[in-house]
Fold this protein.
Amino acid sequence: MKIIADLQIHSRYSGATSSKMNLHEIEYYAALKGVNLLGTGDSLHPLWLRELKTGLEEIDGSGLYRVKGGANNIFFVTQTEVATVHEFAGKARRIHHVILFSSLEMSVQAGERLKRYGDIASDGRPILNVRPAELVETLLEIDQDCLVFPAHAWTPWWSLFGSIGGVDRLEECYEDKSDEIYAIETGLSSDPPMNWRISSLDRFVLLSSSDSHSPYPYRLGREAVVFELKNPAYGEIVRAIKNRDRSSILMTLEVPPSYGKYHWSGHRRCGVGPVSPQKAREMNYRCPRCGRRLTKGVEDRVEELADRPVGYRPSDAIDFMYVLPLQELIALSMGADYTTEMYLQTRKIWTIYNSLVDKFGSEYRILLDAPINELAKTSSQELASLIEDMRRSELEIIPGFDGVYGKILPRTAKRRSEKPDERMRRLEDYI
Ligand SMILES: [Zn+2]
Ligand SMILES: [Zn+2]
């Protein structure tokens, strides 16, 4: 069974999240998106946990859950994100971690133990005063099948390799528990080819998830992992990740990294950016307007830590495809401002979106599988062409920087006519 999984989201109990982050809305929009396995988000938070326990039921002892009375077949896995603060080499390191638990009950028990490190009721994503190694050790004592991995590993703030408060080697974070880490969540601003340049990351599964703060399909599931599972169960997912099993982990779905908010450097407040890695080095990472430090881009950080050239691909790499939210592509195809969330919520956009989903089944069917000529007939040639470009990895994007999303450029007729058809990949090629 093919599973499109978004393993990291938040509930409405995390800071800056939509009040609509409740189980029914999440389930409803996940079905539109075509995501069929979701992290619960925030499973340590007492109030959210209570909602999860009343609103979900376990599926036949599988460690996976579904919404009680839910109309859609969406699986949930017990999941949270936590922040740790620890000192390494005389400097405070602030890092986010994703935790998957084998059951809701395990998360309850973990919550009891983790209380000593911080207030787990303060926020859906609590800050814990604990060394990451001790966190991993504590969690494994409670739930030997739990899985911990660094979240959005390259983001400047609160991440493993972040330029501000991160480390240079995974061992500087997880110390003697590094062997218990099997995956890395790569975040929106980096893609697998960027991570392939660092040989020490070869043993990890590169995961992608949305970290979504809202249930709408332009956020939920915008990055995901495609699994092939015989009998979807928590144990099967964890085994696939621990064994880096390429017959179970087919690929990741990723936004182009330049679309991410931290791909290049810049200083948003002064309107400086995006600045390329080379130019940023020349500027010594100083903002020419205010003299403060530029927020260093993810590409710059990868360049600093890379021991392989651009374009290197490990022989056993897990594949990926670029995707972008359909609502943004619809807006773009109409020449409208796709970056304004209010616009993505207009009736005009939802009407086109829903008619496409009605015809093809889900957003991911549309993005990955639907024949381009059929898409053109159901919507417009402009939208069909944008999707075609996306599948060929040929959208032009002005890179994001310092919290500003990358800007997708409308396609040009010239670009279109130059490209042969065989470069287009579809999900079926992988199955
Ligand atoms: Zn985070
Ligand atoms: Zn500035």
Remarks:
- The CA atoms of residues 13 and 124 lie 5 Å apart.
- Residues 325-401+410-430 form one domain.
- The chain is about 30% helix and 15% strand.
